[in-house]
Amino acid sequence: MGVISASWSHRWPGAVVPYEIAADITMDVPAAQAVLQAISEWNMKTQLQLLVHTGESDSILFTKSPSICASPVGRQGGAQIIGCPPGPGGSITPQTVMHEIGHAIGLWNEQQRRDRDKFVLVDGSVIDGKNYKMKSREEAFHFGLYDCDSIMQYPVIPGNIADRPGGCGPGMGTSVALSSGDIHVVDFYRWEPFYVLSKGAPASASWGPGRVDLFVVGTDNSVYHKWFDGNWKPSLQDINLWEQFAISAKHRPATASWGPGRLDLFAVGSDDAVYHKWFDGSWHPSPVETDSWERFAISAKHGPAAASWGPGRLDLFVVGSDDAVYHKWFQGGWYPSPVETDSWERFAISAKHGPAAASWGPGRLDLFVVGSDDAVYHKWFDGSWHPSPVETDSWERFAISAKHGPAVASWG
Predict the structure, then answer these.
(1) What 8-state DSSP symbol labels residue 177?
(2) Contacts of 293 (CB under 8 A, 6+ apart)
(3) Are 254 and 308 in contact (CB under 8 A)?
């Protein structure tokens, strides 16, 4: 689908790209029409907006060049040039200008993807050239599948690049418009990219103003952590760095805070038990070793979910192997006793997805799961659980055919 520079500084703020067209192009009607058509293609089909320069510090200047079409990759700072040689026989066409705009907004050539050898053949004489060299994970983010129809894909160039049998086919690199892949890769343009090979959805929480912590399970089943306290860390220079907590995690993590400077992290291990770490200025237990987690014995099928309804209070939920929901809470210590498999409060239900939990005030907690009939079920706590926590049907039911989820949050 596309390959985009991993450098956040290469993005144009707000996806707005100021531009000017030099007099040498405006006086050449076919060239000017080609530039305007290319600009219109990006403006009409993507969230990017190329707008006439009105004094912004960074901008693009379209002008003629003596040789090949060229553009730097991404925003460089100041005025940067997209240059193409003049006609007749020159290359100021809508397609080439679209391609160079792609570079200017941060896209590399499609044949620089790391999976390109399944689709195209790059000659050894140019394999390390600037237009063909594969981009590393540190240099570029790869989105979706390889896009033979991308405006960023070169056509066949004898001696440089050819179609691989069973690859792109004879029409590779001959597009006259943006492909669906080109359009969709720009959908990520406003998102700050954190590179990690993740296995599932992330979890996040905040323990105070200006602070947010982000966790995800990697493809190696470790839990990875970033935090923001004015800048993303562990590294201000490399957003691809994460703090790693060694564990063999089976599901997405859960995290919650019960007060300033306090954060709790939970993951289901490969043995289906729930594992726990906590932060109160430093991580406990020690964050490096695989077994340096507090362990809660249970056979967990889904989850976990965690929430806090007040200082020093933490509630933890999982779906067990029998599809019931199991509950532990911390209030000076863990209740029920944290060691034995059956030392959990049990809420009878046949849960298919979830759980999810949130609090909207001191002493209040709301719990949701998706049942086996795909409806959403709800319990709430305000000193005791409602409806009665024992029977299967003692949940509030929201009729829907839910495929995933649930998720819940409170804004007050």
Answers:
(1) S
(2) 247, 267, 269, 275, 276, 277, 285
(3) no
Place of tokens 């944290």: 338
What pTM was estimated for this model as a whole?
Answer: 0.68
Query: How many whole angstroms separate alpha carbon 267 and alpha carbon 200?
Result: 12
Residue 315: how many other CB atoms lie within 10 Å:
22
Distance CA 8, CA 193 (A): 8
Which pair of tokens denotes residue 226?
């970033």
Tokens 């406003």 appear where? 190
Look up residue 385 and give its two tokens: 């659980």
AA identity, residue 13: P
Average pLDDT over residues 141-168: 91
Pairing of strands 203-208, 334-335: unpaired
Contact between residue 105 and residue 48 where contact means Cβ atoms under 8 Å apart: yes
End-to-end CA distance of the chain: 40
Triad 260, 262, 263: Cα angle to 5°: 130
Distance CA 177, CA 170 (A): 17
DSSP structure class, residue 167: S
Convert the pLDDT of each residue in 243-285 to its tens digit. Answer: 888 888 888 899 999 999 999 999 999 999 999 999 999 999 8
Which stretches of 105-251 are DSSP H helices? 180-185
Return d(Cα 400, Cα 345) in angstroms, integer: 27
Distances (CA, A) of 180 to 145, 155, 256: 12, 18, 39
User: What's the rounded Cα separation, in Å, for the pair 150 and 234?
Assistant: 35
Radius of gyration of the chain (CA): 27
3-class DSSP state of 197: coil
C-alpha–C-alpha distance, residues 163 and 155, integer Å = 9
For helices 29-45 and 94-104, angle between their N-to-C axes, nearest 10 degrees? 50
Element holding 51 (H helix, E strand): strand 49-52
Q: Exposed/middle/buried for 335, CB within 10 Å: 0-12, 13-18, 19+?
A: middle
Alpha-carbon distance values, 253 to 183, 266, 317 (Å): 32, 6, 12
**Which is more confident, 310 or 388?**
310
DSSP H/E element including 85: none
E strands, 269-324, in order = 274-279, 283-284, 294-296, 300-310, 313-320
Element (H, E) at 59: strand 59-64
